[in-house]
Amino acid sequence: MNKTAAVACVTLMVIATPLLAQVSPTIELTVEVLDEERDAIIANALDLTKEEEETFRTVYESYRAKQLELRKRYRALITEFTKNYGTLTDEQADKIMTEWLQLDRETLELETKYYEKFRSVLPAKKAARLFQVENKLRSIVDAQLAKEIPLIP
User: Fold this and answer.
1) 20 to 30 A Cα–Cα from 46, which one of 7, 27, 57, 60?
2) DSSP string of 39-75?
3) Stated pTM of the model
4) What single-letter DSSP state applies at residue 123?
């Protein structure tokens, strides 16, 4: 189980959440800035035409809403980890990891589904670039989380 516990902890490092802002004000600030600037960052990266912008916006808003639903569920797992840090049992680590992997599958399903939707309103290169930008934004916070979240004792 030690391997599972270690994997669960490493996995916990990859999701941004205001809950972990208690660990570092830098994380909170980064998440806030990225959320506030996300639309401008995406628009700049995609360089959408007026026609593309109109159809893209509806699909993107739906995608973001579903992303945020998943983010809340990840947040609950992180809360469970932080609440039980130091006394985490093998059973708790296994439960967190199992749920985390399910969320990862759902995230991949969401991205796969929405890539097709974005492809219906954007050229393939722009749809692919969107997911690259989303990944880069997520990676900025992930790097900070990796520094802040301790390994399971």
Assistant:
1) 27
2) HHHHHHHHT--HHHHHHHHHHHHHHHHHHHHHHHHHH
3) 0.76
4) -
